[in-house]
Design a protein that fits this description.
Rossmann fold; ATP binding; 219 residues; binds adenosine-5'-triphosphate; P-loop_NTPase; globular; nucleotide-binding; six-stranded mixed β-sheet; ABC_transpr_LolD-like; transport; alpha/beta
């Protein structure tokens, strides 16, 4: 199996506070990794560093064996678009676009519109949002926003999926659908990192870590 992602001794300080301490992690294709830990422990910070949304104070990040640590913003944005799908707490959806348009957005330059629209509609239907295609993000609940964000993340079948508390705000049946979609992507070869408070979800992953005092401890 190939390494999709490698973190080498990543540390992060906010001001003088150490949040992440020398974290090393390898993500292989077709593997789901769960990260649990206390609230405020740095899980979201870790995920946003992995996704090149913010930089670490020290350490290296390799994506597909390329060291991207020193890439500029534009280069990192290109890697993000190509390699990552994000399912984050604050889904960055565009308020002036409909649900369907938001989900199709990542594909506008790379796919025929019809093909992208078909897959987007299929994903949104799977996630119980068939009746909401023409809604705007501000007309949706948090749980619905989370599912729109998951559909958008899955649209282009990215090699790496990063999910921050993907089952929050969802009832058990919908949580199951979302978790199934993430593991289906894993089965199709994606590397998936899931930050979660849910021990049952963490147990389902191939490898589970706990973030404790800034260190990643394998469970
Ligand atoms: N931009 C920032 N500047 C300063 N401190 C920050 C910043 N972002 C996060 N922090 C602090 O870093 C710590 C880790 O935050 P983070 O959101 O990564 O934790 P978390 O484990 O994801 O928490 P939760 O489970 O509650 O979502 C917290 O104490 C938080 O207050």
């Amino acid at each position: 199996m190939s390494n999709l992602l490698e973190l080498i001794s990543i540390s992060k300080y906010y001001e003088k506070q150490l949040i992440l301490s020398e974290i090393s992690l390898t993500l292989e294709a077709g593997t789901a990794v769960a990260v649990t830990g206390n609230s405020g422990g740095g899980k979201t910070t870790l995920l946003s560093i992995v996704g090149l949304l913010q930089s670490a104070t020290s350490g290296q990040i390799l994506v597909d064996d390329v060291n991207v640590t020193a890439f500029n913003r534009q280069q990192q944005a290109a890697i993000r678009g190509r390699s990552f799908g994000f399912v984050f707490q604050r889904a960055r959806l565009i308020n002036s676009l409909t649900v369907l348009e938001n989900v199709i957005l990542p594909a506008i330059f790379s796919r025929p519109k019809q093909e992208a629209s078909k897959r987007a509609q299929a994903l949104l239907t799977d996630f119980g949002l068939a009746e909401r295609l023409d809604y705007k993000p501000q007309q949706l609940s948090l749980g619905q926003l989370r599912r729109v964000s998951l559909a958008r993340a899955l649209l282009l079948k990215p090699p790496i999926l990063l999910a921050d508390e993907p089952t929050n705000d969802l009832d058990p049946a919908l949580a199951r659908t979302v978790v199934d979609a993430l593991f289906q992507a894993r089965n199709e070869g994606a590397g998936v990192i899931i930050v979660t408070h849910d021990p049952a979800l963490a147990r389902q992953a191939d490898i589970a870590f706990r973030l404790e005092s800034g260190r990643l401890i394998r469970q």
